[in-house]
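#structure-requests
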Amino acid sequence: MYRFNGQDGRLDRSLEAATLVMESFHGYGEQFDYSIVGHSGDSPCIELSAFGKPPKNEKERVALLKKMVAHTQFCRSGDHTLEGIARAKMDVVGDGVEADEYLVIAISDANLRRYGMNGGMLSRVLDDKMGLEQDVSCKVIMIASLGDEASDIKESCGSGKAFVAQSTSDLPRIMREILSRLQE
């Protein structure tokens, strides 16, 4: 992600998406619980903010963003998107807190082909119930694309599961769409 950021701003959009989440939920700790977890060539689960422990202030939010940037600079090449999504689905219901809704939103640079993955594989992971008793809604936002890869993945996943944000201004609209569909 760090390597291609100068070309298409993918890291910037990832940081902006994390900021959007943190700022949106700030002050709503009683109503919403969230975690922020990264995935890279090093691991499918890089904990940045745990459930029940969101960044409390601007200083902690900036520290989380700096940690994201530092990780992208030094991680190995590779991709754990599919494993990361599967792990997030298990973690969101496994935190021991009863909830009305369980949601996983994955952010990806849509660089799957390079690592032998495709939209069909992603779609199966998004849909997999994984033996969970709770229903977990799972969405992916692709914040970059090499050629038409993000559009191809979105088409493979079907309606309402995958979204493409080619600019920062797309993120609030996509988040509203994802959250409004939970009510359906």
